[in-house]
Amino acid sequence: MVNTEPSTTNFQCLTHTWYLAADMQMYIFAPLFLIPLLFSPVTGYCLGVFLIILFAGINYAVYAKYDLPANYIGFFDEIYNREKLTYYDNLVYYAVWNRCTPYLIGIYTGYFLSKTKSKKLHLNWVYIVLLWTGSFLAACGCVYGLYDYIQGPSHKISSFASASYSYWSRIGWALAIAWVVIACEKNWAGPIKNFLEQGLWLPFDRLTYCMYLTHAISIPLVYALDGRPILFVSSQHAYIREAIPVFVVTLTMAFLWCVFIEMPFAKLEVTLVGLLMQKRLQGMSTLKQKDKHLDNKEEHNLESQQHFEPQKICCKTVDVNNREENNYRF
Fold first, then answer.
1. Closest to 131 (Cα-Cα) out of 188, 169, 171
2. InterPro entries of this UniProt entry (predicted)?
């Protein structure tokens, strides 16, 4: 829950698990953005834009003060500068203001899809092409934007440019993915939707989270089992000797993790929640039956009172003197 704090990041057993805490924290605070959307969508969207601009200012201020690189590769010979590396980890890589912006975009994307779920939206094909082009260019910019920068220390860029890439590349990637999701959901993706909906992706879809959890273990495991010095010969050699073995080992470990840990606990959670909900529904059903019984009893009493008519009693009195009968009826 708290291993994204600077005081705890140096004491993690598995360093990549910081994101589990970050994801949980963002999940807990997500209602702060969903509730404004419920009452006023404009207010909710304005809140998100305000936070994105605010966090951008914080990120630029951090880069201006510490002169940090755009990514880890940008450290080059300063990679052994532990103090600067710690600043980058705690103030950029793990920082909430860098990590929550893609999460916000995901929240607003999900809200848009939920509000338009039963609606058929019509969008001109020109706008669809432009959005696909923008999404493709944004994704390429996020991946290849630092191509010249990573060639060596001689290609160093300014702190402003580093801060811009560090912050806006995450937002650009999130927007590109958001458009792909929306386009596939609204049938604006054509063959791309058919390709992404193929059944061959389903096993990997089920294992991606487990692969994330186990990949940091499989990488040193593969290198330890190899035992040979790590030498770079070519990209093809690196793929064959390192990437493919790491992928296979990670996939195997993820499968075992999913079968023996994730799926049993998920099934147990569903069973426990089902039992709790069943007991709650039974309790509500019992209360409803009692209320119905009381209502029927009250209706029966009312009907009995309506059908009851008091009997008329007739009394006859006789005057002894004039023998005149007086009838009193009450």
1. 188
2. Acyl_transf_3_dom, O2_lipid_transport_reg
